[in-house]
Amino acid sequence: MTVATMGTKAGLPEVGSRYQDARRYPHGVAFMDGQYLPMSEAKISVLDWGFLHSDATYDTVHVWEGRFFRLNLHLDRFFKGMEHLRMKLPYGRNEIEQILSNCVALSGHKSAYVEMICTRGGSPTFSRDPREAENRFIAFAVPFGSVANKEQLQRGLHVAVSETVRIPPKSVDPTIKNYHWLDLVKGLFDAYDFGAETALIIDTNGNIAEGPGFNVFAVKDGKLKTPAFGVLPGITRQTVFDLCKEIGLSAAAEDLGRQELARSDEVFITSTAGGIMPVTRVDGSPIGDGRVGRVTSQLAELYWKKHADPAWSTAVVYP
Fold this sequence. Notes:
Elements: E1 29-32, E2 35-38, H1 49-53, E3 56-64, E4 67-69, H2 71-84, H3 93-107, E5 112-122, E6 134-143, H4 150-155, E7 157-165, H5 182-194, E8 198-202, E9 215-220, E10 223-226, H6 235-247, E11 250-253, H7 258-262, E12 266-271, E13 275-282, E14 285-286, H8 294-305, E15 313-315
Parallel strand pairs: 7-8, 7-13, 10-11
Antiparallel strand pairs: 1-2, 1-6, 3-4, 3-5, 4-15, 5-6, 9-10, 9-12, 12-13, 13-14
């Protein structure tokens, strides 16, 4: 590996005027500092507190068949997170909505994963005072992706419960979407070591919490339950509550124990990255009869139908 080029002063390497990046990136468009850029050109400074200290909040919304799904709820959560973290941007809500739409339209994607980010930024003097940092806004649109692939959606995911404990809510408020993922990543490796495809981790009381980028629901005797403590109240999670109300199913946010999860009739996970996704094995054992359940299928079908409903979705204007 070449680590430096020869320079002209005392054998020191030259300082380049521009960073050269040979890595490959998904096709997409990003917005930074008033500019729309291809994904390969979207970079942040290594001095940004978002990179150095995970001092950032973000939100993700997806576009399906040319329409944002529940964009207003995602914007609500994004602005709430910035307020709680004492961050401010030069863009208002309508401007950010337009930027997100522009990223999608410029990318040409009819189905996309769209992210909005606010980082603490940095200061010209490398100050450790967060009040001196200039907050930065970044947005991007890339092709839609799912936690579960096509095969897993058909036969159900295989999940393992890790002993890793989710960051306590008194330390990091889980209602603010953040990049503190080391506990979730450790849970993933625990699951891979077990032979599973993804993970759930536990809360400080030993109950089920959430997984890397998703909430979980258990179904027993036609009633739904999802963890309430120490988790991100996801937009897709909220959508399940809304759908259940519409079709007359009981759904509650309560503690969910590991044994209770294992004895469920059905289990599914929820995420903007994939929607409502079935789980048919937990810790190597089948859930119910080991097949995708009726309630899960009913909710997933209705979930995708809502994407064409103007009350639930917003059209992207393409050139």
